[in-house]
């Protein structure tokens, strides 16, 4: 027995505007058939003009607190917001989100690990809890990729969606349902150019001059990313399961970063797991980067797919490159909602 961070609440928020593959095919040289067969994606949500990552994060955070049974007077020690699309280059988005949620004096920071961000943030919050530095934490993954996409580039514009998911963690015991008991994280910065927004940071600003228009937007070398994603998501999932002491055959669900259905299936296969263990909701939301794992968890939980005590492996891969995995024993969670028909408003 030992101290562990325990999941006690889960919330999700999707902006209401649905963008289907057919909508994209009206203005890009693409088709529903190509997008669905190559990625598994059928539609995604894009935030309306004026809606920021912090707006989505605030909604998801409020829902997570409600799911954890915490009210307006909730006291949370730590807020970690994983995002690639912060509201501003400076300051971080997390302090503003914490204040809007009503969390006074909480430590709050952003964490940038692209699509692995939520797993990185879970690990950071879990460490703070295990060290006794925080009694509880709110971990949020939130993105508005629609603001960094080149909407004329069919190789990326069809893949990404906007959304936010959030989890409440508290200090508990590593034997109880909800416990996070094994983590694995890694990176390889030599592959940084495979997923990048080249302009807008100090590298480009220090060089001076105006960046090329395309460099202001998200760029990805899809094929290279695909191969690396399968390899690292599989290896990281194995490492996290081993740290938790879980034989892979005891894993009930694999919740991978929702980048591509073919990636998720390949990871499940390479882990030697039944196809039914692979959780996917990307047909409805696309790739939502740091938001994708909590959104997939929330969807599966809302559908009643998980039972308390089930062993759930989370595994992610993203720009950097970064990757990470976590072993989570499913808790007895209150109902979670993932769409605009929230009980909150
Ligand atoms: O979130 C971080 C992690 N991200 C990922 O893991 C993404 C990993 N990569 C992927 O999911 C896939 O590589 C993509 C979905 C991005 C691309 O699928 P692919 O099977 O690797 O396609 P491809 O890039 O090899 O392109 C095949 C063809 C190309 O045409 P040619 O050269 O064969 O004539 C592309 O130009 O498909 C073309 N193409 C498209 N056609 C219609 C690329 N995008 C589109 C499109 N519609 N949207």
From TrEMBL:
Spell out the Gene3D superfamilies in the cross-references. Answer: 3.40.47.10
Reaction catalysis annotation: malonyl-[ACP] + acetyl-CoA + H(+) = 3-oxobutanoyl-[ACP] + CO2 + CoA
Q: In which pathway does it act?
A: Lipid metabolism; fatty acid biosynthesis
> What residues form the catalytic site here?
115, 257, 287
Enzyme Commission numbers on file: 2.3.1.180
Top class in the EC scheme: transferase
Q: Does the keyword Phosphoprotein apply?
A: no
Q: Mind listing the UniProt keywords for this protein, alphabetically?
A: Acyltransferase, Cytoplasm, Fatty acid biosynthesis, Fatty acid metabolism, Lipid biosynthesis, Lipid metabolism, Multifunctional enzyme, Transferase
Cellular compartment(s)? Cytoplasm
* Domain named Beta-ketoacyl-[acyl-carrier-protein] synthase III N-terminal: residues: 109-189
Note down the stretches annotated as region ACP-binding: 258-262
* Domain Beta-ketoacyl-[acyl-carrier-protein] synthase III C-terminal residues, every copy: 242-330
Enumerate the NCBIfam families for this protein: fabH, PRK09352.1
Instruction: Please describe what this protein does.
Output: Catalyzes the condensation reaction of fatty acid synthesis by the addition to an acyl acceptor of two carbons from malonyl-ACP. Catalyzes the first condensation reaction which initiates fatty acid synthesis and may therefore play a role in governing the total rate of fatty acid production. Possesses both acetoacetyl-ACP synthase and acetyl transacylase activities. Its substrate specificity determines the biosynthesis of branched-chain and/or straight-chain of fatty acids.
Q: What HAMAP family does the database record attribute to this sequence?
A: FabH
Subunit structure of this entry? Homodimer.
- Per the similarity annotation, which family is this? Belongs to the thiolase-like superfamily. FabH family.
Q: What is known of its domains?
A: The last Arg residue of the ACP-binding site is essential for the weak association between ACP/AcpP and FabH.
Q: What is this protein called?
A: Beta-ketoacyl-[acyl-carrier-protein] synthase III
Q: Identify the species of origin.
A: Glycomyces endophyticus
């Amino acid at each position: 027995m030992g101290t562990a961070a325990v999941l006690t609440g889960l919330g999700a928020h999707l902006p209401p505007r649905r963008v289907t593959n057919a909508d994209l095919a009206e203005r890009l040289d693409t088709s529903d058939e190509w997008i669905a067969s190559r990625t598994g994606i059928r539609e995604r949500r894009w935030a309306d003009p004026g809606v920021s990552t912090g707006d989505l994060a605030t909604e998801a955070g409020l829902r997570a607190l409600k799911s954890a049974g915490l009210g307006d007077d909730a006291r949370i020690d730590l807020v970690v917001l994983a995002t690639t699309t912060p509201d501003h280059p400076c300051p971080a988005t997390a302090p503003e989100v914490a204040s809007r949620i009503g969390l006074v004096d909480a430590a709050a920071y952003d964490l940038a690990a692209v699509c692995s961000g939520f797993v990185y943030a879970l690990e950071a919050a879990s460490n703070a809890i295990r060290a006794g530095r925080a009694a509880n934490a709110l971990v949020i993954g939130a993105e508005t990729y629609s603001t960094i996409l080149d909407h004329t580039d069919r190789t990326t514009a069809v893949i990404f969606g906007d959304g936010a998911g959030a989890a409440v963690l508290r200090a508990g015991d590593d034997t109880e349902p909800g416990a996070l008991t094994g983590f694995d994280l890694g990176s390889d910065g030599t592959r940084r150019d495979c997923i990048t927004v080249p302009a807008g940071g100090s590298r480009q600003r220090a060089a001076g001059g105006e960046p090329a228009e395309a460099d202001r937007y998200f760029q990805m070398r899809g094929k290279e990313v695909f191969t690396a994603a399968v390899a690292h998501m599989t290896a990281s999932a194995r490492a996290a399961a081993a740290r938790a002491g879980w034989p892979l055959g005891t894993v009930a669900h694999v919740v991978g970063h929702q980048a591509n259905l073919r990636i998720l299936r390949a990871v499940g296969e390479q882990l030697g797991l039944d196809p039914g263990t692979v959780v996917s909701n990307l047909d409805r939301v696309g790739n939502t980067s740091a938001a994708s794992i909590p959104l997939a968890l929330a969807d599966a939980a809302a559908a009643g797919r998980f039972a308390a005590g089930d062993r759930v492996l989370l595994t992610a891969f993203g720009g950097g490159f970064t990757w990470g995995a976590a072993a989570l024993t499913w808790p007895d969670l209150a109902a979670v909602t993932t769409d605009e028909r929230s009980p909150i408003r």
